[in-house]
Amino acid sequence: MNHADILELAQATAKRIGIRIENPTLVLENMKPRVGIATILCNNNYSLWIDRHYIAYADVSKPEIVYVFADEEHISEELRSVCKRIRNEKSDYALKTLMSAKEQLLLAEANMNKSGDGLFIFDRTK
User: Fold this and answer.
1) Does 124 have pLDDT greater than 60?
2) Cα 33 to Cα 8: distance, rounded to the nearest angstrom
3) Does the first or last residue of the chain, that is N or C, have fewer Cβ atoms within 10 Å of its Cβ?
4) Residue at 52 is within a domain
5) 3-state helix, strand, coil in the chain (%, to 5)
């Protein structure tokens, strides 16, 4: 999946949750390998993260992170990080959020291993 494809999927996701991507060019610039910055956009109800390795959003009132797209690199890094943070977390809300992310990432990892694709699109709705 190239950066333009990721941006297209991010734009469809943003539209669905009521977030406007005002500067798509900047989002693409942030995806460049030397830059590698996640773009974070918010409205009153949602936060949306767009990166060259993943797209995810969260309803600010719920303890879940919804992944839309993730590649193999992000899943392996994030699983290690999530598992480490789960051991140290004291807050029930944060723990539920981490467990939600862990479940999705484990599912994606299993599906990627089975398919050999190296990426997983959780939500194909456009």
Assistant:
1) no
2) 19
3) C
4) yes
5) 50, 20, 30
